[in-house]
From TrEMBL:
<keyword id="KW-0677">Repeat</keyword>
<dbReference type="InterPro" id="IPR032675">
    <property type="entry name" value="LRR_dom_sf"/>
</dbReference>
<comment type="similarity">
    <text>Belongs to the polygalacturonase-inhibiting protein family.</text>
</comment>
<keyword id="KW-0325">Glycoprotein</keyword>
<dbReference type="GO" id="GO:0016020">
    <property type="term" value="C:membrane"/>
</dbReference>
<dbReference type="InterPro" id="IPR051848">
    <property type="entry name" value="PGIP"/>
</dbReference>
<dbReference type="Pfam" id="PF08263">
    <property type="entry name" value="LRRNT_2"/>
</dbReference>
<dbReference type="InterPro" id="IPR003591">
    <property type="entry name" value="Leu-rich_rpt_typical-subtyp"/>
</dbReference>
<keyword id="KW-0433">Leucine-rich repeat</keyword>
<feature type="signal peptide">
    <location>
        <begin position="1"/>
        <end position="27"/>
    </location>
</feature>
<keyword id="KW-0812">Transmembrane</keyword>
<dbReference type="InterPro" id="IPR013210">
    <property type="entry name" value="LRR_N_plant-typ"/>
</dbReference>
<protein>
    <recommendedName>
        <fullName>Leucine-rich repeat-containing N-terminal plant-type domain-containing protein</fullName>
    </recommendedName>
</protein>
<keyword id="KW-0472">Membrane</keyword>
<keyword id="KW-1133">Transmembrane helix</keyword>
<dbReference type="Pfam" id="PF13855">
    <property type="entry name" value="LRR_8"/>
</dbReference>
<keyword id="KW-0732">Signal</keyword>
Length: 392
């Protein structure tokens, strides 16, 4: 979840690289200068003067902050985010206005970062689909509305696209993802996007991260999601996704984070789940999952496992005691039965919640002292921190 700040650091490093290594032999191209000046004219407020150096009488390749050019004088980098850092300071500012359609005339642009400006409004111009050389695209954390333009299907060289934390609506056109085989990071979180997850997402063979949480996506997960072998970060939480968790998910051997909470998923947690050997953070709470936890779950590398508020049943797997890296285990509000395995005393968890299940017997001696609330709602449990067990 900390990836947004790392993305901004990466943006700054790329800007530095452009400044250090771009050998500008010609002055700023007139078409590019006109496009940038038109963008500036659409900005109503710029309190910290992010665009103060953008002057018609100067060379945009040399004297304009946030702009870098290639050797032919064509703009290849436009970086004016509202949150950025220097060697000794962090700046958090904003700009109010709209995105000029003229930015689509920057035909050699490779890197575009107008993120975190907070008060950019209006729609995303469809003309940005003309930026066919674009590899990195950041418009997140603004107040942009309307759909994701279908013209984005032409952005086939994209490696990273972040449009999250806006007010975008409508479905994601399937054609957009059809030819983005180079896309490694896709961020659309916290918008008002709806419809099914396009099946064309399976074409994103380079995808390592997908974050679409906090929308209104519906339908089911692609049954062959396991074909996206490079995925290490998947956050689909807080949507309206239904159906089963596909068995193929167990093929994601590089997956580090899986957040599916606050959806309407049903069925059992697939047996293949325990094959996610790299998985550290798993949150499946607030769904309609049934069945039990996989018996071999103890083979995983989990640090956090949260499955609260489902309809899970059965006994707790003894193998959970093997998860010595686990710091959070929360299984509350399910229907787990039987005793808490003695192997749980091996756990180093700092947060534990087994409340409101149907567990019985004596509570094992955990390494950390937990409050009674961690076990309440299990009428058959006894022992510290609950009342002592009755002796025969």
């Amino acid at each position: 979840m900390a990836s947004k700040s790392s993305t901004k650091i990466t943006s700054l490093l790329v800007l530095i690289c452009f400044a250090a290594f771009s050998l500008t032999t010609e002055a700023c191209h007139p078409t590019d200068k006109a496009a940038l000046l038109d963008f500036k004219s659409h900005i109503n407020q710029d309190p910290t003067k992010l665009l103060k150096t953008w002057n018609a009488s100067t060379d945009c390749c040399v004297q304009w902050e946030g702009v870098a050019c290639g050797s032919t004088g064509r703009v290849v980098n436009l970086t004016r985010p509202g949150l950025f850092s220097t060697d000794d300071s962090i700046f958090d500012t904003f700009m109010n206005g709209t995105i000029s359609p003229s930015l689509g005339n920057l035909e050699f642009l490779r890197f575009l970062d107008l993120s975190n400006l907070k008060q950019l409004v209006g729609t995303i111009p469809s003309t940005l689909g003309k930026l066919t050389h674009l590899t990195d695209f950041f418009l997140d954390t603004n107040q942009l509305t309307g759909p994701i333009p279908a013209s984005f299907k032409k952005l086939t060289k994209l490696r990273r696209m972040y449009l999250g934390d806006n007010r975008l609506s409508g479905s994601v056109p399937a054609s957009i993802l059809q030819h983005m085989s180079s896309l490694s990071e896709l961020g659309l979180s916290n918008n008002q996007l709806s419809g099914e997850i396009p099946s064309t997402i399976l074409n994103l063979v380079s995808l390592t991260k997908i974050d679409i949480h906090g929308n209104q996506f519906s339908g089911s997960l692609p049954s062959t999601i396991g074909s996206l072998k490079k995925l290490n970060y998947v956050d689909l939480s807080a949507n309206k996704i239904s159906g089963n968790i596909p068995q193929s998910i167990g093929q994601l051997s590089q997956l580090n984070l899986l957040y599916l909470f606050q959806n309407s998923l049903s069925g059992s947690i697939p047996s293949s789940f325990s094959g996610l050997s790299a998985l550290k953070f798993a949150r499946l709470e607030d769904n309609k999952l049934t069945g039990g936890l996989p018996s071999t779950i103890g083979k995983m590398s989990l640090q956090r496992l949260v499955v609260d508020n489902n309809k899970l049943t059965g006994e707790l797997p003894v193998s959970i005691g093997n998860l010595t890296n686990l710091d959070t285990l929360s299984l509350k509000n399910n229907g787990f039965t039987g005793k808490i395995p003695s192997s749980f005393s091996n756990l180093n968890v700092l947060t534990l919640d087994l409340s409101h299940n149907k567990l019985t017997g004596k509570i094992p001696a955990f390494k950390t002292a937990f409050p009674a609330s961690s076990f309440e709602g299990n009428s058959g449990l006894c022992g510290s921190p609950l009342p002592p067990c009755k002796t025969a």
